[in-house]
Amino acid sequence: MKRPLTAFSHSLGKQVRSVRFRLMLWSLLMIAIILVGFSIFVYTQQARDVSYDSINRVNRMARLFIPTLHDVPVMVPHSDDTTGPSLGSLSSPGFASNATPIFQSYDAGALVDSNGQVLQKVGPVNDADLTSLAKTWQDTGAGVDPKTAQVSTTSSSGQANNSAYYFVLSHVVDTGGNTGTLIIGSPVDPDGRLSSLALNLVLGSVAVLFITLVGGYWLAGRVMRPVQTITKAAQQISETDLRRRLNLGTKDELGELADTFDQMLGRLESAFDRQRQFTADASHELRTPLTIIELETERALERHRKPEEYTRALQVIQTENETMARLVSDLLTLARMDAGQTMIKTEQMDLSDIALEVVERLQSLASHRQIMLETGDLPEVPIRGDHQYMVQMLTNLVENALKYAGENGKTVHVETGLSETSSPAGGWVRVIDNGPGIPPEHLPHLFDRFYRVDKARTRLDDSSSAQSLSSATSSGLGLAIVQWIAQAHGGRVSVKSEVGQGSTFEVWLPISE
Ligand code: ADP
Q: Taking Cα atoms as reference points, which of 404, 434, 428, 399 lies closest to residue 416?
């Protein structure tokens, strides 16, 4: 019994917290405030009109009996030759019969003597109220301006009521010297206009609020539907299903949100893909040297071997170890670069100094491979760069040229220059070889991680020349690192190559004076 109840209150709480519910509530509140304001305005306007009418009426009626309201009228005996209504005398009043044609059934008129005795009256106001009105008037000496009072009335059908009246009271004296009080009254709202207006306003407001409630709930639901779609889709999209898109297809703000979300998913997907590819490639690259080491060790340990055989086995193991060390170091460099943990400490430097430094360092390697490593024009190229990274970048390029130029008698040429036409102003360093070149279909992928033009050949080359080119073993990461360094310095790297002619790698960097 308890559980469904908690579930119900939980879903109710969720409903109440929902944007849809709150939107509806806010619109309801707004409309309610507007309605209340409007009703108050209309009601007060109408109430003012109604009371003006009533005051006018009561004044008009009073003037019939009291020509100048501030005078104390002397009662004239009722006779046929007087024009207009007459009050008669207090001892034999003629007021009622005369008053009747002018008065409406709800109006009140009365003559009260000095003892509070109601001598004459027309209209529904009860005697007790008339007496107390006359008494109050006598006590306070209130003027003849109309005043409101709440009085009890009895209609002709005998129905008792409580109504608001405007009254004009006046002191009267008859010819015999008897004094009394004349009371003329008219209801504030004789036709019940105010109460029917109030009823209409309340009913109208309730109707409008109901429509707002239903309409608001429906409208809010419609507006929120795309949000629900987005939420549902987002819940379904998991790490393994990043290919899915929301594709909301609307041009409004929510469509824009969904588009942004889709773009983010796209970036996430490609980041995940790159990461996955990277891990797969890295493990694949590490597996080959590990397998070779394992096979080599197994073979060496199978039986007793000659010392030269052990030496050869150890040399193979050493080479593979170097491959792995290089690979791990490159991977680490790239991982750090990706994670943004690499600190680039830039200083003012001359790119041609770096070129010279790298060429000198790799000279012995080049002569070992019987390749000519030479410098061309080296004008000063002032840049801001990190010395260590600049050296690494150029070393990778020159090592590649030496590695892939292949046969003896080839040359590798390093030169720098300033590109006058480019904006911003830049300088470049080129590594030019007349090696085998790279087929055009490979050029777009050359700077991708682990990309090698000819995997089998590269590895074979590496093992056969392991001793001579120990630091230049192939990982397929060298050019990716070159590109990262160039970009991190605000520059770029490009390649031109023709099969049989050779390749030219150019790094462009912004000049810094
Ligand atoms: P690797 O560690 O294999 O050298 P790189 O990223 O430095 O990795 O180079 C990627 C591939 O580009 C190489 O495997 C090679 O096939 C090709 N390459 C790079 N430089 C040259 C060059 N100067 N001449 C011919 N091919 C090259």
A: 428
